[in-house]
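Case study B.
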Amino acid sequence: MKATIFDNYIKSLHFPFYSTIVIGSILLGVILACIIMYREGLKRTSIIYTAFLTFVCIMVCGLSLQIWLTGDPRRLAFTGAGGALGLLIGAFSSIFIHRDHEKEMMASWVVTAPLMYGLAKTACHISGCCVGIPYHGKWAVVYESDLISRFPVQLSESLLFTLIFLIGLFMLLISGKPLLTSRVVIVISVIAKFSMDYLRDGHYLAKSPLSQNQILALICGVIALGLVEIVNNILGKKQVKGESKIYHG
Amino acid sequence: MDNNETNNPYTQTVEVTPQATHSDNAPQTAPADITPQHVPASELPPEALRTLPRDEAQVPEPKSYEKLLCFLSLGLYVFGPTASGIPMYIVESMNLQSDVSSPIFSVLSSFGSVTYIAAWVLMIIARVKYKKSVFAKVLMWVYIGMLVAAVILVIVLVATCINALNNCNCSGMG
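Model:
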């Protein structure tokens, strides 16, 4: 067994931190999305209700997709793709309910999604799930469960997705184009998730060229881009029609 | 009088009527009775109608769906998880093969999730559309309380299960 700087760290924290870190990272993302929405000029009531609904959707979809995929309710874990789908469902439902700064609301949630995922990945690193491919380099990690030297793919994903969040945040604040920012963040996130899966050990267990995670990432990306286009085209036009109807009595 | 004012019957009523009453030595209270507000709403032009308060324009109040939304939300909130949780427990206790039980669990968990999210959506619609609704407000606080309890329960449950697994020298989540 090769000794690395991560050995004692992983052993000391153990698993119970998994759910706390996952829920904490989602809560942090929700709080940041609320701050961005407030800065973008949304009403306070819209922000509060959107935050609650999106948090519920993330949690429910993240947990239920795990059951849906494994078919085993005893394997209580959180799926990143389910969380992303839940975030999209919550944000899009809120846009329909409140009709308040639709584009900004969509962008706030899309931008913070990579941060939630990135922070939640530290829970995977600590608990020893979603492990990387065998690797014997400088940053190798060894888990107690199998004692194999592995690439720290979870920490790499954490750093990468936190970087994507920062890029999206600066782009939103500087450019002031929420939908363009949403599209860029979605495309970069899907590419990052798709690419990083090749460094996961689980990727090579499946016989198909694309793993389940990659297929889910592509599906999430297509749905997200579709919803952004709906917000851009259909909802915008409907709002103009509604306003003109009120004006003419 | 300007051309603009003569074209507008709303303005015409205000200007002309008091002058006519003064010339006939009518009581001073008469002009106050003939005000634009006392013209029937049906006789007013659309431009003037828009300036009136909502009740005087005689616009019928929209039908309130407050109770329907709240009851539907509560029904979904109670029925969804119950209708999916109890069958899941029964199927699990039957120890069926995974080929049989997996699709059942998938369908039941999806049903429970959809109904739970729908209950939240309906409650929020009720809160947004009918801000003074006490029923919707009570539902909101009940849902939030249950959500906080569920989050704490998940944290404690996962921690307890995994501690038990560690004590048994089993591997945790894969």
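The longest helix of chain B spans residues 134-167. The remaining cases will be described in the next quarterly update.
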